[in-house]
Amino acid sequence: MSQKATEDQWSEIITPKKSWFDLRLNELWQYRDLIVLFVRRDFVAVYKQTILGPLWHIIQPLFTTLVFVLVFGNIAGLSTDGQPAFLFYMCGVTIWNYFANNLNKTSNTFVENQGVFGKVYFPRLTVPVSNVISGLFSFTIQFFLFLVIYLVFYLRGVSLQPNMWILAIPFFILTMAILSLGLGIIISSLTTKYRDLTMLIGFGVQLFMYASPVIYPMSSLSPKLQYYMHFNPVASILEGFKYAFFGKGIVSYNSLTYSFILAITIFLIGVALFHRIEKTFMDTV
C-alpha cells in the first residue's frame, strides 16, 4: 500500500504548533465528545462518595451568605445599598462563586492531569474548558436558589426593582467564564515551573474577593476608590448583576465593554502561553 493511500485513511495528522498564536481552537469542537466526558468525570468525582451529593451546591452558598450577614452585615455594618442583607450577599456570592470555582479548578490543570497528559494526545485545552462548563451546572443550581429566595422577598412586599438589565445576565456569565478561564490557564501554565503558586491560589482568590464589590456596593466607596475599582474587570460584572435585580448600583457600558475586551485579551494570552508550555511541561511537572 502506498504512503498516500495510508495517509488518506488517517482521521488526523498531529503537527507541531508553529507559533505562539497557532491556537487551533477548532480542535475544541472536534473533541467535543471528550469535553462531555470530562464534564461527567468532574461531576462524578466530586459527589461519588458524598451523602448529600449535589445538595452541597445549595448548602455552600446558603452558609456563606449567612456568615456574610453575621460578620459584614450585623458586626461590621457594611452598606447593602438599602437592600435586604441576605439577598444582597447571596446575589454577590452566586456570581462570584462561578468565577472563583472556575479559577481554582483551571489553575491546577497541568498538575492534576499530568498522568493523562503524558499518555495520549488530545487538545489539552479541553480540560480547563470542561471545568468551566461543569461549573456552569453548579452556577445554575445556585442561581435558581437565589431566584426562589428573591421571589419570596418580592412577594412579601420588599422594595426590589428588577429591570431590563436581567437580559444582560448571559453576557455577565459569559464574561466571567472567559475571564476565569483565561486567568486560570495562565496560572496553570506558570505552576508547571513555579509550584509555590499552587499554595497561593486559594489565598489569592480570597483576597481578590475583598478587592471586588461582592460584600459591599461600589456606591459605598469614595470617588477615588470607585475610579480605581473600574480597572477591576470583575467589579463591573458584579455591579451589573446586582443592578439587574435591585435597580441600584454603579453600571456603565464603558466599564462592561472594558471588562469584556480585557477578558478576551487575557484568554488569548492564556491560550498562547498554555500551548507554549504544553510542549515541555512533562519535563518540569
**Helical percentage:** 55-70%
Shape: globular
Q: First CA to last CA: what distance?
A: 41 Å
Oligomer type: single chain
Number of helices: 14
State the order of secondary-structure elements, H for helix, E for strand: HHHHHHHHHHHHHH
Strand content: under 5%
- Mean pLDDT comes to 83
**Gyration radius from CA atoms, angstroms:** 21 Å
- Major sheet characteristics: none
Query: Which runs of at least 5 residues are low in confidence (pLDDT < 50)?
Result: none
Number of strands: 0
Structural class: mainly alpha
Describe what you observe in this structure:
With 285 residues, the protein is mainly alpha-helical. Helix content is 68%, strand content 0%. The chain is built from 14 helices and no strands. The chain has helices spanning 3-8, 26-30, 32-47, 56-75, 85-106, 109-112, 114-117, 126-155, 169-191, 197-210, 223-229, 233-246, 253-278, 281-284. Helix 5 runs parallel beside helix 9 (169-191).
Question: How would you summarize the topology of this molecule?
Answer:
Blueprint: H1 3-8, H2 26-30, H3 32-47, H4 56-75, H5 85-106, H6 109-112, H7 114-117, H8 126-155, H9 169-191, H10 197-210, H11 223-229, H12 233-246, H13 253-278, H14 281-284
Helix pairs in contact: 3-8, 4-5, 5-8, 5-9, 5-10, 9-12, 9-13, 12-13
In short:
By secondary structure, the protein is an all-alpha fold.
